[in-house]
Write a structure and sequence with these properties.
Spore Coat Polysaccharide Biosynthesis Protein SpsA, Chain A, four-stranded mixed β-sheet, single chain, 35% helix, globular, alpha/beta, nine-stranded mixed β-sheet, 22% strand, 289 residues
């Protein structure tokens, strides 16, 4: 049964989803990174925060409810659902059917957003009329320290559908990725729920049929390494990715090789080679262009 601070079906600027299960060690940091984001605390945007719990048996729900009850912000609606599921992607599929926000994202317990993430996303979406965006690839250790930052070069739709990102090129970082709600219409939620390891890739594959994934040179979110996470099952992830992706051609391999070289170049080179797909901050104009 849902435990909701608001039953309103209004249209929000953002919907964020956190699927979780027995995450008492990590859920607070993740939630607070969403709820305390600058664009919401200053009243510049509204948030629907959907927490889809898998019927946790530890203290996860107590922490979620305690934090929710202490958030006094009319710009934020927190919706809590707790029910048994078959895994993270069934939880995600259930939450995606409830989305009322214009811009969507999901972040797992343990990962967290930067303080200004949603302010940046709102500006880049509005200024450039884009529909799908990702940021810097950021990694945290288990102490929440930033231990790696890199700027993506380009995500080609054809190579997304071939499964190149993850096999030959760096993965699309889910924790830094945002999209407009209408892209959810292209998802088969039952099929998403049936996946175990590469559900994020299924989203990107379907979105890539309709929109190009743009990049902003900004810290939006990051992935935290910690024991027992699903990402440790790399062989299983790649196996499911292969099942979902199209067969690569010789041209795809050559294009991937060229792109891999460009991934290692300075940001100025990446911007020059991908002028319409990479947004960098212009200090004179005070916006991402």
């Amino acid at each position: 049964m849902p435990d909701s601070r608001s039953d309103s079906e209004m249209n929000y600027d953002f919907t964020v989803i956190t699927p979780c299960y027995n995450a008492e060690r990590y859920i607070a940091e993740t939630m607070l990174s969403v709820l305390n984001n600058s664009v919401f605390t200053t009243g510049k945007a509204t948030l629907e925060y959907i927490i889809q719990d898998g019927a946790s048996v530890d203290g996860t729900l107590d922490i979620i409810r305690d934090i929710s009850q202490n958030i006094d912000n009319k710009n934020i609606s927190i919706k809590i659902y707790s029910e048994k599921d078959s895994g993270i992607y069934q939880a995600l599929s259930r939450a995606l059917t409830k989305v009322n926000g214009h811009i969507c994202s999901y972040i797992n317990a343990g990962d967290y957003y930067s303080f200004h993430a949603f302010e940046i996303v709102k500006q880049v979406f509005a200024d450039n009329g884009i529909k799908w965006l990702t940021g810097l690839k950021v990694l945290y250790n288990d102490k929440s320290h930033v231990v790696h930052v890199s700027l993506p070069y380009r995500y080609r739709g054809s190579l997304i559908r071939k499964g190149a990102y993850g096999k030959l090129l760096p993965l699309i970082q889910q924790e830094s990725t945002f999209w407009i709600n209408s892209l959810n219409d292209f998802l088969d939620m039952d099929y998403l729920a049936s996946l175990e390891f590469a559900g994020d890739y299924y989203l990107w594959r379907e979105f890539s049929r309709h929109e190009d994934l743009k990049i902003v040179e900004a810290w939006l979110g990051g992935f935290k390494f910690h024991p027992g996470q699903i990402s440790e099952a790399r062989a299983e992830y790649l196996g499911e990715l292969k099942m979902l992706s199209e067969k690569m051609t010789v041209f795809d391999y050559l294009l991937s090789l060229v792109d891999l070289v460009l991934w290692g170049t300075p940001s100025q080179v990446k911007k020059y080679c991908n002028p319409s797909g990479l947004y960098v901050y212009d200090h004179k104009e005070e916006r991402y262009i």
